[in-house]
Design brief:
Elements: H1 6-20, H2 24-30, H3 41-57, H4 69-76, H5 84-109, H6 114-129, H7 141-152
Length: about 150
């Protein structure tokens, strides 16, 4: 039997909650959840597909996903998440911690003086803290037009 990490268990439960209550994906997206936040690449790809289907059709139908139907049902079974918000925040927090740990490890193993390493670590901490839980903000019509015009060049 394959051992699953706590991160993966939470991720599976979020996927299951969204499959059970598809409207919950909007809350996950509003909080800033992205496929790369998942520790398990396959779960991130599933979330990416679910997001794509949702944004295209304004709903998620389990039968339209390219995943094995039985595997999707396993995510739904025994799903005891009561708050998608807390679980999504935990996934993003775990992602931040994985990134921070990886970057600090690289800095510590690199050459250079201790003072330089400390500065790099502090910059890394600041950068990782920018990965936040972001409720989608409301844009004014002028901001939307301005962004649209900017993209048109």
């Amino acid at each position: 039997m394959i051992s699953r990490s706590n991160d993966m268990i939470i991720e599976e439960k979020v996927i299951g909650k969204i499959l059970l209550f598809p409207y919950e994906i909007q809350e996950a997206l509003d909080l800033g959840l992205k496929p790369e936040h998942f520790s398990d690449f396959k779960l991130g790809e599933l979330f990416k597909e679910m997001t794509s289907v949702y944004l295209e059709n304004a709903k998620i139908d389990i039968s339209t996903l390219s995943w094995d139907y039985e595997e999707l049902l396993n995510f739904i079974e025994d799903n005891e998440i009561t708050s998608i918000e807390l679980s999504v925040k935990k996934i993003i927090e775990n992602y931040r911690n994985r990134i921070l740990e990886k970057e600090i490890q690289k800095i510590l193993l690199s050459g250079g003086k201790s003072e330089e390493k400390i500065k790099k670590i502090l910059k890394t901490v600041e950068k990782v803290e920018e990965i936040s839980f972001s409720k989608n903000r409301t844009y004014s019509p002028s901001e939307i037009v301005g962004e649209f015009m900017e993209k048109l060049g």
